[in-house]
Amino acid sequence: MANKSETKKVQWRSPSNIALVKYWGKLPNQIPLNPSLSMTLANSYSETKIEYSKKSQSDCLITFEFRFEGKENGGFQNRIFNYLKSLIPQLPFLTEYFFSITSSNSFPHSAGIASSASAMSSLALCLTSIEYRINRWRNGR
Fold first, then answer.
1. Could you tell me if 76 and 96 are in contact, meaning their C-beta atoms sit under 8 angstroms apart?
2. Which of 31, 77, 103, 126 has the smallest count of CB within 10 Å of its CB?
3. Taking the model in full, what pTM does it have?
4. What is the pLDDT of residue 100?
5. Radius of gyration in angstroms for the set of CA atoms belonging to the chain, rounded to a whole number
6. Is residue 15 within 8 Å of 115, Cβ to Cβ?
């Protein structure tokens, strides 16, 4: 169980984009099969907030909850789980903390704008911020 009294928070916003020439197909790990051309939409963004707290016992499991626009989203939660699991070698702290992840867009979902890309970008920025904070704390800075 997590220690609620020591919950910390990070939050990032990433711009979305719209494809002018879209790639078709993917290789493993979400690598595009061929190039694409897109335009960044500065006023269309995804915002992700992570509240995190150290688990009272290490169990080597990734534990988190996810809400999009205030509601549970099982499909995207599975994508996040797989993404976090793939990052354990680079970010081993992922099994030491409980994460409450919330995400929202400044534009309508499923409108043809790359909301998944901007959501994953803001999630990645949050995770690197957490890693930075943990490393500073562990190194006494």
1. no
2. 31
3. 0.85
4. 97
5. 16
6. no
DSSP string, the chain: -B-GGG-EEEEEEEEEEEEEE----EEGGGEESS--EEEEEEEEEEEEEEEEEEBSS--S--EEEEEETTEE-HHHHHHHHHHHHHHTTT-GGGGTEEEEEEEEESS-TTSSS-HHHHHHHHHHHHHHHHHHHHHHHHTT-
Can you read off the two tokens belonging to residue 89?
């070698």
Q: What is the C-alpha separation between 60 and 64, in angstroms, rounded?
A: 13
Residue given tokens 């939409």 in the structure block = 41
Mean pLDDT by runs of 10 across the 141 residues of the chain is: 73 92 79 84 95 89 94 90 95 95 89 83 97 86 64
For tokens 């994460």, the residue is: 99
Distance CA 13, CA 16 (A): 10
Distances (CA, A) of 50 to 39, 102, 125: 27, 7, 10
